[in-house]
Amino acid sequence: MLKGKSILVVVPARGGSKGVKLKNIRTINGVPLVALVGHVVKELPYVDRAVVSTDHPEIAAIARGSGLDVPFMRPENLSGDIVDDGSVLHHALVECERIDNRRYDVVVMLQPTSPFRKPKHVTAAVEKLITGRYDAVWTVSETDSKAHPLKQLVIRKDILDFYEPAGANIIARQQLTPVYHKNGVAYVMNRDCILTTKNIKGERTSFVVIDEFMVNIDTELDFKLAEFILQQKDHPKRD
User: What is the pTM of this model?
Assistant: First the structure.
């Protein structure tokens, strides 16, 4: 528990990823992605329960080996390509409360695809949710100005145009208001947000900005980038 709130960690790790086959058990620095989450959870003493939601027996076995529990297998209707996180978390929360015969106040989603995640990142998000009484808190990273929405272009009938008309007035990056993107490190929601709306974003959603470089694994190139970063002597170690 943390500040009187019971904490449930849910690790979504289905077996049917399309971009990289069985992505969640591919290794970074010799450790499967789902096992890396288990290593982080071991450094979070306030977590009451940490489970993996998966439909794949090999993922389940590796998860258990890292200290995570797999008290249920994810049903087929929640294992397809287009399934929202809220529905997966709703199922996991309901199942865990039924199996454990207890209530969980806070749900923390830790996706295996963020291998540079640190315990302090998760803790900062959980603490902010509880102390600020938010519905949800996400970790985010500032987006490089080159990918700013006002710099994006679209093609309409062989004509190039700005995605947002206001982009035509941008001369220098100093004119741009910073924007942020989800980095996949941690999503924290209160119980009602998941049970009532089945959504990871509530009406009052706050944030934790992570300034360190994060990789969110989705492609083979992402794996190569993560391995390259880890090989750098000045890459910060987990703390």
Answer: 0.92
